[in-house]
Design a protein that fits this description.
Blueprint (H helix, E strand, L loop, with lengths): L30 H15 L4 E3 L7 E5 L6 E7 L7 E7 L4 H15 L3 E6 L2 E5 L1
Antiparallel strand pairs: 1-2, 2-3, 3-4, 5-6
Helix pairs in contact: 1-2
């Protein structure tokens, strides 16, 4: 953005107390996590609350379906690292569980079945 009168860019403030949050969730997935995600999807499809990745290794994700007017609340608690938690109310559309089951099948199809050391310190994933 430039100033109309001078055509110059305004100087940046010397200090800013406002930071923008980065919507990022770092996780380390294992094949067992895909199995438990499948179980979570079954619980959600049946209308029951569920918890995923509550092993202390990754951020825990809780799904509370008891909200009013079809609003679910998802809680992400990063107890494995820095400790913050975020609550996100979401209106769930019909058919979401089936869509996520399909996505899970695509992830499983692409998941490497084997890691092979092709030379010292070099690895290749094989399906």
């Amino acid at each position: 953005m430039t100033e109309p009168a001078t055509g110059r860019r305004p100087a940046a403030p010397p200090r800013s107390d406002v930071t923008s949050p980065t919507p990022r969730l770092d996780v380390c997935l294992a094949p067992d996590d895909l199995d438990t995600w499948s179980q979570v999807l079954q619980e959600l499809a049946a209308g029951r609350n569920a918890v995923w990745m509550d092993d202390g290794r990754n951020p825990e994700i809780r799904f509370d379906l008891s909200g009013r007017d079809g609003i679910a609340v998802f809680v992400v608690a990063d107890t494995a690292a820095s400790g913050p938690s975020v609550r996100v109310p979401v209106r769930l559309a019909g058919g979401r569980a089936e869509e996520h089951h399909e996505r899970l099948q695509h992830v499983r199809a692409a998941w490497p079945q084997e890691v092979v050391e092709t030379s010292p310190g070099a690895y290749e994933w094989r399906r």
